[in-house]
Amino acid sequence: MRSWQRPGVPDLDRLGHGAGERPSVHDVRRDGRAVVPAGPVASMYTCGITPYDATHLGHAFTYLAFDTLTRVWLDAGLDVRTAMNSTDVDDPLLERAARDGVDWRELAERQQQLFRDDMEALRILPPDSWVAVTERIQPIADAVRRMLDTGDAYALPAVGEDGTPLGEDVLFDTTRQRQFPMGFGSRTGADEMLELTREFGGDPDRPGKRSPLDPLLWRAERPGEPAWDSVLGRGRPGWHVECTVIAMQELHTPFTVAAGGRDLRFPHQEMQGHHALALGARMFSEVRLNAGLVAYEGEKMSKSLGNLVLVSRLLQQGARPAAVRLALLAHHWREDWEWTDDQLEAAEQRLDRWLEWSTTPDDDPSLAESVVPWLRVTLHDDLSTPAALQAVDAFIQRAPADEGSLAAIDALLGIDLRSVARR
Ligand SMILES: [Zn+2]
């Protein structure tokens, strides 16, 4: 589907600063650092939104984290390829649409447009492919069919509330995977996995499951729910297999990074890895990255708790998009943190100081120092944007504005001081 407009990214190499290095990032699976990518191609699949509560600061923080990684990769002169989904048919979306008395497709389309507008305002680089799940129902059904054929999946009868037979659901057999769980799951206790399975709608108590953790791959049509004809009969796909198939179609496995918020590491990302193995991949991704979660008023920001701070609302209230960006970049991408309103004002003031500096004349460009190495050294170290912002703060105290520094702040931090409005 249509993505959003890509902001310009200055090429620091062409401006005479050489190329940056590959970053070292914290990989969830090995619980340690990895320099990525291993080869000349840098590819990333990012779990996208379920379009019913776009775009709160938790979303923005996640996508900004992976935007920073993309910018560091571009600066390293790598061939960068990115893909993301939109979970545009799923239980929470359908429940929201039913509650509000709107068509689920309209709700999804409206929220996706909001997301586009917010991402564009924040100058987040769009994925090369942004794929809606409803655009890939057939390949997903075909993949589930293959898993049934290989014995990686099994069918369970679906029955309505009144006992009416409704066809067959298909589940993934986690007991068949010799290395289950792998990655984060391998350091997670059985109780916690069960708890998370329940929290994410995994129905662990369903009779007939080979393991309580087995996730749904295909849901047979239920009355009043959207469904598509397929090799599996009428129904719709499960959540984890959607991302698996879209990622495998858009990027060669193993691609470099599977990315998402920390709340996705189990079961969602874990199951993706297993589904990919069942579908013949040697490995799903080289590393898994999890962005931290943003709280507000003491709780994780979520629609169900009603404590959302929406990007669009901050912008309507007059916040400059670059200031919202700076407020988010002031936190390390892996940190869990809490939004408070004073952080925006602090970011607005920082932006004013940077703007003031950006107009100071550089009398002798031949003597100019540049912030380029400062930004690179901080960002290569696990994308430390807080350190990068402090580096700029320190730099502007001692040197006039030069072309290279302005370009680097744009290329690596996504802030084009030449286009930011004054307050
Ligand atoms: Zn996903």
TrEMBL record:
<dbReference type="Pfam" id="PF01406">
    <property type="entry name" value="tRNA-synt_1e"/>
</dbReference>
<dbReference type="GO" id="GO:0006423">
    <property type="term" value="P:cysteinyl-tRNA aminoacylation"/>
</dbReference>
<comment type="subunit">
    <text>Monomer.</text>
</comment>
<dbReference type="GO" id="GO:0005829">
    <property type="term" value="C:cytosol"/>
</dbReference>
<keyword id="KW-0436">Ligase</keyword>
<keyword id="KW-0067">ATP-binding</keyword>
<dbReference type="GO" id="GO:0005524">
    <property type="term" value="F:ATP binding"/>
</dbReference>
<feature type="domain" description="tRNA synthetases class I catalytic">
    <location>
        <begin position="42"/>
        <end position="348"/>
    </location>
</feature>
<feature type="compositionally biased region" description="Basic and acidic residues">
    <location>
        <begin position="11"/>
        <end position="29"/>
    </location>
</feature>
<dbReference type="InterPro" id="IPR032678">
    <property type="entry name" value="tRNA-synt_1_cat_dom"/>
</dbReference>
<protein>
    <submittedName>
        <fullName>Cysteine--1-D-myo-inosityl 2-amino-2-deoxy-alpha-D-glucopyranoside ligase</fullName>
    </submittedName>
</protein>
<dbReference type="InterPro" id="IPR014729">
    <property type="entry name" value="Rossmann-like_a/b/a_fold"/>
</dbReference>
<dbReference type="InterPro" id="IPR024909">
    <property type="entry name" value="Cys-tRNA/MSH_ligase"/>
</dbReference>
<dbReference type="GO" id="GO:0004817">
    <property type="term" value="F:cysteine-tRNA ligase activity"/>
</dbReference>
<keyword id="KW-0547">Nucleotide-binding</keyword>
<feature type="region of interest" description="Disordered">
    <location>
        <begin position="1"/>
        <end position="29"/>
    </location>
</feature>
